[in-house]
Structures are given as C-alpha cells and as structure tokens.
Amino acid sequence: MESLSPNFIAYMAGLPKPLDAEGFRDFGVNFYSTFTSSKHQFDQVIVEVNKVVTCGTFIAKHLGEFQGIPPTNKQVEISIMHIDYVENGKILEHWGQGDFQGLMQQLRIMFFPSPKIVTSIFKSIFSKILRISS
Asked: pLDDT (tens digit, 9 = 90+) per residue, 2-14?
C-alpha cells in the first residue's frame, strides 16, 4: 500500500466499478489467497515518463474457493496486461486486464456446446432465415 498514491484508483476488467486503494488491496488478498504459488512472467515491460505497461502471463495454482467454485488444485495460466500511471513515485492509477474467460475454461466451469448441438442451432437459424425470406 506504500506504493499507492492517496488518490489511487484501479480499473479492473470485469468489475462493475473502480476500486480505491483499500478495495484494490482486498481484491488482491482474496485473489492471491485463492490462486496460490503465483508468479507473473512479463514478456514486455514498457516504461515511459509516468506510465508503466506490463504484458505477460499469470501462473498460479487454484487452491481456494473462487466465485463459489471449490478448489480444483489445477495450475492455471492466463494472459495479463497492466497499465500503471505514476505520480511522485507512487501509483496513481491502475488499469488491469486478465483473460478470465481463459481462466474459467481451465477450471472447467464454462459450458461448451458439443459440435452436434452447434450444428443443430445453425440448422434451426438458417431454416428460420429461409422461411422469413421466402
């Protein structure tokens, strides 16, 4: 928290509203206690005058409850990108994006229709289109 500005604000993809410093800390404590033994591997780090951009992969093990899903003990890897704006040596603004759809797929908690169902859906749609255009 020492590295965050008193006016810190975080915009995290998928969250309904921005987080202040305390909300950001709480989010991090919850997330990192759920996904343990974590590490960030950064493929790119871009530093400008007051901006730091990091792109890479977050790797961790799912050992805690996540959105009502019990631990799977699976290792997960998701793509991440962060943009931090710095003022007076402290982070003023954070923008975070993680591939949470990829995370859900790795935890096997997303529904994927079988090819048979997809074919049936397309046939139904096309037959309706043909009837409408006739």
From this structure: 899 999 999 998 8
